[in-house]
Protein backbone atom coordinates (compact mmCIF):
# COMPACT_ATOMS: atom_id res chain seq x y z
CA UNK A 1 0.00 0.00 0.00
CA UNK A 2 2.84 2.37 0.85
CA UNK A 3 4.52 1.81 -2.52
CA UNK A 4 1.25 2.42 -4.38
CA UNK A 5 0.69 5.64 -2.41
CA UNK A 6 4.21 6.89 -3.06
CA UNK A 7 3.88 6.04 -6.76
CA UNK A 8 0.82 8.29 -6.91
CA UNK A 9 2.79 11.14 -5.32
CA UNK A 10 1.25 11.02 -1.85
CA UNK A 11 3.20 11.85 1.29
CA UNK A 12 3.27 8.74 3.51
CA UNK A 13 4.56 8.27 7.07
CA UNK A 14 4.79 5.19 9.26
CA UNK A 15 3.30 5.03 12.73
CA UNK A 16 5.63 4.38 15.64
CA UNK A 17 5.72 1.29 17.84
CA UNK A 18 3.15 2.72 20.24
CA UNK A 19 0.88 4.52 17.75
CA UNK A 20 -2.57 3.12 17.06
CA UNK A 21 -2.17 3.69 13.31
CA UNK A 22 0.11 2.16 10.68
CA UNK A 23 0.26 4.67 7.81
CA UNK A 24 -0.54 8.36 7.54
CA UNK A 25 -1.36 9.83 4.15
CA UNK A 26 -0.99 13.60 4.06
CA UNK A 27 -2.13 15.84 1.24
CA UNK A 28 -1.56 19.25 2.82
CA UNK A 29 -0.69 20.83 6.14
CA UNK A 30 -4.25 21.04 7.43
CA UNK A 31 -5.44 17.44 7.38
CA UNK A 32 -4.49 13.83 6.73
CA UNK A 33 -5.89 10.32 6.97
CA UNK A 34 -4.49 7.59 9.19
CA UNK A 35 -4.87 3.93 8.26
CA UNK A 36 -4.94 0.90 10.57
CA UNK A 37 -4.38 -2.50 9.01
CA UNK A 38 -4.80 -6.08 10.19
CA UNK A 39 -4.60 -9.42 8.41
CA UNK A 40 -6.43 -12.62 9.41
CA UNK A 41 -5.45 -16.09 8.22
CA UNK A 42 -8.42 -18.20 7.10
CA UNK A 43 -6.61 -21.32 5.93
CA UNK A 44 -6.24 -22.80 2.46
CA UNK A 45 -4.09 -19.85 1.45
CA UNK A 46 -6.84 -17.28 2.06
CA UNK A 47 -6.42 -14.10 4.05
CA UNK A 48 -8.75 -11.33 5.13
CA UNK A 49 -7.23 -7.84 5.22
CA UNK A 50 -9.02 -5.22 7.31
CA UNK A 51 -8.12 -1.61 6.67
CA UNK A 52 -9.67 1.30 8.52
CA UNK A 53 -9.03 4.92 7.56
CA UNK A 54 -9.95 7.96 9.66
CA UNK A 55 -9.25 11.64 9.15
CA UNK A 56 -7.00 13.60 11.46
CA UNK A 57 -6.63 17.37 11.68
CA UNK A 58 -3.81 19.76 12.43
CA UNK A 59 -4.38 20.88 16.04
CA UNK A 60 -3.01 24.35 15.41
CA UNK A 61 -5.43 25.05 12.57
CA UNK A 62 -8.41 23.76 14.57
CA UNK A 63 -7.44 26.09 17.43
CA UNK A 64 -7.09 28.94 14.93
CA UNK A 65 -10.61 28.27 13.58
CA UNK A 66 -12.04 28.25 17.11
CA UNK A 67 -10.27 31.52 17.97
CA UNK A 68 -11.54 33.13 14.77
CA UNK A 69 -15.09 31.98 15.51
CA UNK A 70 -14.96 33.39 19.04
CA UNK A 71 -13.63 36.72 17.74
CA UNK A 72 -16.40 36.73 15.14
CA UNK A 73 -18.99 36.08 17.86
CA UNK A 74 -17.57 38.96 19.91
CA UNK A 75 -17.76 41.27 16.92
CA UNK A 76 -21.36 40.19 16.31
CA UNK A 77 -22.23 40.96 19.94
CA UNK A 78 -20.82 44.47 19.41
CA UNK A 79 -22.94 44.73 16.24
CA UNK A 80 -19.87 45.02 14.02
CA UNK A 81 -21.51 42.98 11.29
CA UNK A 82 -18.90 43.49 8.58
CA UNK A 83 -16.02 42.54 10.86
CA UNK A 84 -17.96 39.54 12.18
CA UNK A 85 -18.79 38.29 8.68
CA UNK A 86 -15.22 38.78 7.45
CA UNK A 87 -13.67 36.89 10.35
CA UNK A 88 -16.30 34.13 10.11
CA UNK A 89 -15.50 33.87 6.40
CA UNK A 90 -11.82 33.36 7.20
CA UNK A 91 -12.76 30.62 9.67
CA UNK A 92 -14.93 29.01 6.99
CA UNK A 93 -12.07 29.05 4.49
CA UNK A 94 -9.74 27.30 6.97
CA UNK A 95 -12.46 24.76 7.78
CA UNK A 96 -13.03 24.00 4.11
CA UNK A 97 -9.30 23.56 3.60
CA UNK A 98 -9.16 21.05 6.47
CA UNK A 99 -12.02 19.14 4.85
CA UNK A 100 -10.36 19.28 1.42
CA UNK A 101 -7.01 17.98 2.68
CA UNK A 102 -8.67 15.10 4.55
CA UNK A 103 -10.87 14.22 1.57
CA UNK A 104 -7.97 14.25 -0.88
CA UNK A 105 -5.83 12.07 1.40
CA UNK A 106 -8.73 9.63 1.83
CA UNK A 107 -9.24 9.48 -1.93
CA UNK A 108 -5.54 8.71 -2.43
CA UNK A 109 -5.74 5.86 0.12
CA UNK A 110 -8.87 4.40 -1.50
CA UNK A 111 -7.34 4.69 -4.98
CA UNK A 112 -4.17 2.89 -3.80
CA UNK A 113 -6.24 0.09 -2.27
CA UNK A 114 -8.25 -0.34 -5.48
CA UNK A 115 -5.02 -0.51 -7.50
CA UNK A 116 -3.85 -3.31 -5.20
CA UNK A 117 -7.09 -5.21 -5.83
CA UNK A 118 -8.79 -4.61 -2.50
CA UNK A 119 -12.52 -4.06 -2.47
CA UNK A 120 -15.34 -4.00 -0.01
CA UNK A 121 -16.29 -7.61 -0.68
CA UNK A 122 -12.84 -9.14 -1.08
Description:
This protein is of the alpha+beta class. It has one domain (2-115). The protein is 49% helix and 25% strand. The chain contains three helices and four strands. The chain has helices at residues 2-7, 59-77, 81-115, and strands at 11-14, 23-26, 31-41, 47-57. Strands 1-2-3-4 form a four-stranded antiparallel β-sheet. The longest helix has 35 residues, at 81-115. The chain is elongated and about 70 Å long. It starts with a helix and ends in a 7-residue tail after the last helix. The relative contact order is 0.19.
What share of residues is helical?
40-55%
Order of helices and strands: HEEEEHH
Low-confidence stretches: none
Cα(first) to Cα(last) distance is: 16 Å
Which shape, going by the Cα principal axes?
elongated
Q: What Rg, in angstroms, do the CA atoms define? A: 20 Å
Indicate the structural class.
Answer: alpha+beta
Number of domains: 1
Largest sheet: 4 strands, antiparallel
Order of strands, main sheet, comes to: 1-2-3-4
In DSSP terms, counting alpha (H) and pi (I) runs of 4 or more, how many helices?
3
What is the chains' assembly state? single chain
Give average pLDDT, whole number.
88
- Beta-strand share of residues: 15-25%
Number of strands: 4
